[in-house]
Input
Amino acid sequence: MWSGHAFDWAKFGHTFGALHPLWMLAAILFALSTYWGRALRWRVLIRKQKPHASLWSLFVATAIGFTAIVVFGRPGEMIRPYLIARKEKLPISSQVGAWFLERLYDLLMALLIFGVALVQVQSTTVHVGEALAWVLRLGGHAAGALATICIVLLTVFGLFSGWAEKRLRQAAEVLPASVQGRVQSMVSAFVQGVQSTSSPSAILQVVGYSILEWLLIIGCYYCLFLAVPQTAAFSLLDVSIFVGFVAFGSVVQIPGVGGGPQIVSVIILTQLFRVSMEVASGVALLLWAVTFVVIVPFGLLLAVHEGIRFTRLAGIGEELAEEGLAGETGERVVEKVVEGEPS
Output
């Protein structure tokens, strides 16, 4: 795709040297605010179990949890549910269920944004032909319809969680015995998650906070694009379309954004927006730093303040990611790894 292209390192470096500091600061503030937004949404997800959960404790656990993802990779995903369970004195399995539901809503929001991006793609500076634009619009409507159907199903499952669990467990019985246990654990985690949205008001709040979360993400991207002179002309719709493509292309890594989204970012910028390889690579690196790494100093400081040892968290996260998903399994895993409390 880029064969024969001589990478201009001077042009790549200029992407960083010409950054607008105020817009970069705004992008960082937007990025940090997304973690507060996640804490707000998590408080709704556990309100049925803990009506007056501490928002600050949830934010601390969120910041440390995303720092753990940067440090440990995939096993770090389970650190946040573990810390919240310990802080709020709740079963770990219930917080894994909340995490599972949060991921589902993020995936659905990514799908919705991607659908809007496909529908609106011809109204922007994206370079596509008429035939491809028609295909993209059709795909956009299909993506939007699929996301809407999934949200309706999540709502039904939330309002009728007992019925949903029974049906899902019956469906899992046709699977081989070797995988039934893990699937049943996932079903239990999912049901525990949707039980938190067993009222229309809770569903509306979770959807509202999910929309807020992704508006903050788009705001972060928009400010970062304004900070780079070569992309400062991008409109808000251009940036929203970019976010839609990147979110959908790297959907398996949401909410943590590691290497996959950066590759997708470079491809979208160079192939659809005709940005040079050097600038696209610089923007992708900046996005990784602002949306992924920026929380690390805060997470480490909060971990020190809370008396949390990351070496201990690494073992917990790995064991939970591999084994502990629901019921008492997660509690046994933690008891096996931890000797005493980490905080």
